[in-house]
Amino acid sequence: MKQSPEIEIEMRAENSDRGPVYRSSDPSGDNWAMACHLSALCGYLFPFGNIIGPLALWLFKGKQISQVDQHGKEALNFQISVTLYMFASMLLMLIGIGVVLLVALPIFTLGMIIIATIKARNGELYHYPLTIRFLR
Q1: Nearest CA to 33 among 95, 105, 126?
Q2: Distance (Å, whole) CA 33 – CA 60
Q3: To 10 degrees, the CA torsion angle through 104, 73, 43, 107?
Q4: Residue 50 — left, alpha, or beta (φ > 0 → left; ψ -120 to 50 → alpha)?
Q5: Would you call 124 helix, strand, or coil by DSSP?
Q6: What's the burial of 18, exposed, middle or buried (CB within 10 Å: 0-12/13-18/19+)?
Q7: What is the pLDDT of residue 88?
Q8: What is the pLDDT of residue 97?
Q9: How far is CA 106 from the centre of its chain?
């Protein structure tokens, strides 16, 4: 017996601890949501690209596609938080522990971007850890 999409979403959300799940009638919405997370990799190429990339996509498609609005805010919050943590790490270099943080933070960030991208592709909203919620 085939269930309606609404029931499938509710059952899937209740029976999993993976996070909120949605199904879009437009699969390109998931692709744009993935792009919000992947665009943060621009930060490895030029300064503040990790913020500019998700911001541009969020402003460009956020009003049209609800997934992009949600994922864009999440990606922006995380990237702004990471940027603040990087500046704090630079200050902490004065007492020695900042060096470890400056090495660990980009590796952690890359891992979280990959996880968020996979979750977005699967139709799940991923909440980054250690994120300050600037945008709600």
Answers
A1: 126
A2: 12
A3: 20
A4: alpha
A5: strand
A6: middle
A7: 94
A8: 84
A9: 15
Residue matched to tokens 């500019």 = 52
Q: Which residue has the tokens 């522990």?
A: 97
Going by C-alpha positions, the residue among 88, 131, 124, 87 that lies closest to residue 108 is 131
The residue ranking higher by pLDDT, 6 or 135, is: 135
Residues of the chain with pLDDT > 90, as a percent, come to 70
pLDDT at 16 over 60: no
Can you give the pLDDT at residue 96?
Answer: 83
CB–CB of 24/67 below 8 Å?
A: yes
Phi, psi of 122 (to 5 degrees): -85, 0
